Amino acid sequence: MGNELTQYNNLASIYDELTDDHDLDGWISIIEQFKQLQHQSILDLGCGTGKLLMHDKLSNQFKRRVGIDLSESMINLAQTKSNQVEYHVMDMVEMKFNETFDMLTCLCDSLNYVTEIDSVHQLFKQSFNHLSPDGVLIFDVHTLEKVKLFTDGVFYEDREEIFYHWTSDVDDDGYIDHELTFFVKKDELFERFDEFHTQRTFSKEMYLNLLEDVGFSRIEVFYDFNREDVHFNNQHRMFFAAFK
Where is the Methyltransferase domain (predicted)? Predict the structure, then answer.
């Protein structure tokens, strides 16, 4: 994994506001659909500020909740929200715990920040090793169709206290380069900071091959938060549920 995730240190203080339109309930619904009665622990990879793990439905369904993220600022902010969730600054590709978990999640296209095939393979291997028997890994990624939307893309949003300008570019290997400029209001002035992020996505077949290679026994693939939507028809988000 590259160093791009460290850029989230600048974004941590405004991340929750910028993502207030994310379909958090949709991700929670996916987790609930795959949770089995015996599942009591969850590890969230790329947990950010902990919005998912702090959701009331997860706190009621999992006795143990753990989150990891490469951004120390994100983890520091998450830790201020609750002492009922355990957080660690950790690279998901190199994660190491002396325990297993019933469910691993890597949502909101966090896995797209793992840009090399060998690193994705290593992440799947680590995930398999950290799952309890009958455990499940759930993740989502951009589809290659969605990547096309970023081609020479220019986006911006103007809020009362935050303005940002975002340009992106893609190549034929599924890489997406995002360049963002933020202006955040501080007292009576606006403070500027710049971010550069790189993501990459692969084909459905590549993810399936890597998952099967590390030993996952059953894998479900579906699209856009709908478990019944199993046939690709230019959707933008691809979900995987891989069972140990």
Answer: 42-135
- Residue 244 CA to residue 240 CA, distance in Å, equals 13
Say which CATH class 146-199 falls into: mainly beta
Range 228-232, long-range pairs (CB < 8 A, 24+ positions): 232/143, 232/145, 232/204
Rg (CA), the chain: 18
Give the Å distances, CA to CA, from 122 to 45, 95, 115, 229.
Answer: 14, 10, 12, 28
Long-range contacts (CB closer than 8 Å, 24 or more residues apart) made by 34-41: 34/103, 34/136, 34/138, 34/241, 35/61, 35/103, 36/102, 36/134, 38/102, 38/134, 39/102, 39/103, 39/135, 39/136, 40/64, 40/102, 41/65, 41/66, 41/101, 41/102, 41/103, 41/132
Q: State the pTM of this model.
A: 0.92
Confidence band of 9 (pLDDT split at 50, 70, 90): low
Quick one: DSSP state of residue 158?
E
199-235 residue pLDDT tens: 999 999 999 999 999 999 899 999 999 999 999 999 9
Q: What is the DSSP letter of 125?
A: H
Structure tokens of 143? 């589809």
89 Cβ neighbours under 8 A, 6+ residues apart? 68, 69, 70, 71, 72, 75
Residue pair 138/150 in contact (Cβ under 8 Å)? The answer is no
3-143+203-243 CATH choice from 1.10.260.40, 3.30.365.10, 3.40.50.150, 3.90.320.10: 3.40.50.150
